[in-house]
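help with this:

***
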Amino acid sequence: MKNYIILLTILFLATFLNAQENVSCRDFTQTSVDILTENNFLPDGNFNSVRLCQGDKIEIYKPFYKGRDYMLIVTSEEVLPGIIVEVKDMTRKVILKSDKPEKLHQLNYTPDKNQNLIISVLVTKSEEYSAENKGCVSVVIGFSTPKNQ
């Protein structure tokens, strides 16, 4: 019985701590949403945020539609060295790429056709930062209203 109580306590603490990390990332993502709305873009409703370490990479697959202007806001917390962002088509041809590692990237894109794209985010490595640090990385996409309407 004692082992059962210890196990339940450990599971509860692990769940609670993980939930706290997710709340932290959600709060961090709000900054990206604010940038979109300040630039008159509507968030698409999907807020992608995850805790990553140096060298980690994520990919998000997303449809983009002809006639809409898109703004991608990709941010990382201060505990991470910086991020590189690439937008690729389904053949992995790079369409957009950030110039250098930074903590905030704002990329604009207007597709000439309907297409699925891959948003790739890489957390760079740096000896100035602890390799054990985990920080939130947020990807938020906004769009303008369609042209010709």
